[in-house]
Design a protein that fits this description.
Rossmann fold; 116 residues; alpha/beta; single chain
Length: 116
Amino acid sequence: MLAILMDRSGSMADAHCAALRAGAKFIGQVFADSGQAPFEHFYAISYDHEMKEFKWNGDQAEFERFIDKEVVSRGGNDEQSVFERVRHLSNTLPDITSLTAILFSDGGFMCGPHLK
């Protein structure tokens, strides 16, 4: 299973989101161009204080529309929930042989008073 986790919190300014969108679309294109899917499942999850999820269906244009619509700098950050979602998916989807998660973030959740 491949999961790309895309931070769209308020600290992800325009340039950060633009780079994230480009990187996510590139990963999708590589997945689409592959003759055989390199992973059993592919999910893209954007998150801030809520999550939006896209399960790969082979349609690159639909994937890119999801990325363009959902990867915009918005609100807070609930990284714990996105990690829990990936754990849930990996535990419930059939035929998972491995899990690769790519986290796109500016790292804002890795600092601050909540870590003291």
